[in-house]
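Example (one chain per record):
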Amino acid sequence: MAESKANKTRFKQKSKTKSTTRKIKEIEPLEPETIAEAKALEKHPYWLTTEDEVLLRSPEPEDKFKSSDSWRVFRILGEFVGGFDELATITRGVSVFGSARTKAGDANYLAARETGKLLAEAGFEVITGGGPGIMEAANRGAFEAGGVSVGCNIELPFEQAANTFQNRSLTFKYFFVRKTMFIKYSNAYVIFPGGFGTMDEVFEALTLIQTRKIRNFPVVLFNSQYWQGLLAWLSSTMLREKNIGAEDLGLIHLTDSPKDAVDFIIKCCGFDENGE
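Predicted structure:
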């Protein structure tokens, strides 16, 4: 359905400018309220709508755009097929997560780089989200060690530049497709300090293990000082309220050593020091 006259006016008034040299960041269209309006704004340089956002918006009753949701399944299917084909040879993958904001030279960056190196030397393929920060560090360590360095990049409203230390790079439109690739092709997760996205990966893995959707899956938290507050809350409040069992806390391995992290993964996965 075409935009209503009111919506057109609302957008034009907001984005109207007296100068052609006015910066894009100063043109701030109001947030779209329907899928139809979101699609109309999709190509506007300020408002970059991702496929995830369009897919997850609730359609209006009169919105004809909702009829295309079923057809979008084919794009999702294609992304799954492409990911499965590209990663089919990854049999000893380990995913490393952490903040994209971590700077090179930071202690966590250096530790992630060393972890990536040790994983590659042990015969593991290192998988990250393909971006900067901790992701770059882990990819860099594996790449410099001559190992397989995989980046599963994601389309975001703000551009995430892929780091240059990948010898196998994929880009996904949908978060849930990308998350499936991490789980499917990983033998373990190593979690460095990070934000909401990092937390999402931590608790998704723990949920899948707890519910036995996946098994024999080491989850390593790196940097005990960073995680101590969360672990204290889990072992007191959450455990005290009986929302988890004491055995659930045993799913997490806490360390401050890249070597210990890799040794723990080797032990849990049943590989020897040569990755066999």
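Caption: The first helix runs from residue 5 to 15.
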